[in-house]
Structures are given as structure tokens and as C-alpha cells.
């Protein structure tokens, strides 16, 4: 299949790219990895008059550690995250999540920020960003703003991004060293889009109760879903079998009523979501590390 006609622009400076996005706002798309956007073009599900290829803007190609998060620039490839010794050491949950994205050939080209900006509700990285209370840095030719993950994803393939804005950076907060974490998904075949997936971070208190719980889902609605009700159930407990079963039942009810398609019925997705919740909570809780006796504990950051 052939894409529709468009004007192709390949700026080498960020300001030039932002100027083009501003000039053609409403009829322009940015191109980075193209693993989702190019198929949409070829199937003529997207037909912008202008495409701004940002791949030559070297200042957007970075992975950096900040005090409270890992900063990933707009041109950092998913495979770079996966292979980075720094990220493997400092943010293993991000590495684990990234390895579930498609196949290696896709990750070689696909960008982390591109996956976030595309906002596919079945994608892994948007759900992880919501789970971690992450942020995106959006920039226009006139200003920049930080958007919380919960506010960024507004619906199916839609975000709070303005037509003249570009996501230049994504912030993945650090996982507390004591916390247990996990990412899991159910897919028909390896590399397929997941029917259901989830990311979880569980932080223990010195008495081995759960002082903080964070969980988010993909594939159960038109956008990533934060499991607020589940987090309330888990907080203050020791994650015994009864508590985990209560959380699983609560997760079943979170699946949107319109999530029945050719791949899975609504009831099947709800069963998958409940079972996935049981598995991911047990896996995450099994990874926790209790603080040394006498260490000072702060609930805000989960660190002694």
C-alpha cells in the first residue's frame, strides 16, 4: 500500500522542527522511529500534509540520570534502553517492560518517547509511565510544559499534547530500592500486542506490610488505567492470599465494557485481568527487600 501525498521536512535543529510544527499545526506529524506511524500512513489511516522527520536532531538523542528520575530524550531507541548498562542497573523495571515491545527489529528503530506520544492503549511504556507517576516534557516554539502521565493520556491514540507541541523528553521516576516490582502481559504470541498487561511497584514497611502500592494496566480500556481501587486494597496489608484475591476481583471490574473484539470477549479479558493481577502482585511482592532494622524510613520516597 502507498501513503498519501505529503511534504517531507528534515530539520537538524530543534527550534527549526518546532517552527515547522507551529507553522503547519493541525496538519503536521512528527516522525521518529515510525514503527506505528508509517503503517498508519500506508493504510491511509493518517494523512498529514506535512511530516517533520526529527531523526537528524542530535540534541534529542540521550538517556540521562536526574535526581528523581531517568530522563529519556525523544530519539533514544527502545533497544538502547534494553541494552544500556546504566538503565539495567538503575531502572530494571523499565528494561523489563521494554523487552516486551514487539520484536528486536522493532525495538532497534522504535523510540521510547514515540511510543508514549502515540498513546496506544495496548502499548507497554504508557502503562509503565502511568504506574510510576511519570511525566512528559512537551515543547513548542514559544514555551515548554511538564505534563503528568495521568493527565497526558486522554483516550484512544489521543493525548493532551497541543498540535504545535513536540514531546522532547520523558521522565521515568526511580523505583525505591526496597520496592518489589513486576511487569507482565498476556499475548497470543510473542511480539503480538498484549490482550492485557500490567506494571506494579510495591514498597514494604519495616514490619513487612505494604506501605505503598502502584499498579497500572494496558489493554483494558481506551487509555492506560491506574488501579487506584487496587492500591487502596493493598496498602497497609501483608499481601496475604485473601487480599490478593480481593485485588484480583477489583481488577476484573476495571475492564471497560467496550473491550470485546475479535481477539477476546469482555468476559475473557476480565478473567485474564484478574489472573494477571494475582500473578504480578505475587511476583512484585516476592522481589521486595526489607530495610535494615533501625534505618529511618520515609513514605514519600521509600528510601531510608
Distance between the termini: 57 Å
Main sheet: strand order: 4-5-10-6-7
Helix percent band:
25-40%
Structural class: alpha+beta
Count of helices?
12
Rg over CA atoms: 20 Å
Largest sheet: 5 strands, antiparallel
The count of strands amounts to 14
Low-confidence stretches at least 5 residues in length (pLDDT < 50)?
A: 294-304
Q: State mean pLDDT (0 to 100 scale).
A: 94
What does the oligomeric state look like here? single chain
H/E element sequence = EHEHEEEHHHHHHEEHEEEEEEEHHH
Content of β-strand: 15-25%
The 3D shape can be described as globular
Structure write-up:
- The chain is an alpha+beta fold and 304 residues long.
- It contains 12 helices and 14 strands.
- A 5-stranded antiparallel β-sheet has the order 4-5-10-6-7. Strands 11-12-13-14 form a 4-stranded antiparallel β-sheet.
- A hairpin with a 2-residue loop joins β8 (153-155) and β9.
- The longest helix has 21 residues, at 266-286.
- The protein is globular.
- Mean pLDDT is 94; it is low at 294-304.
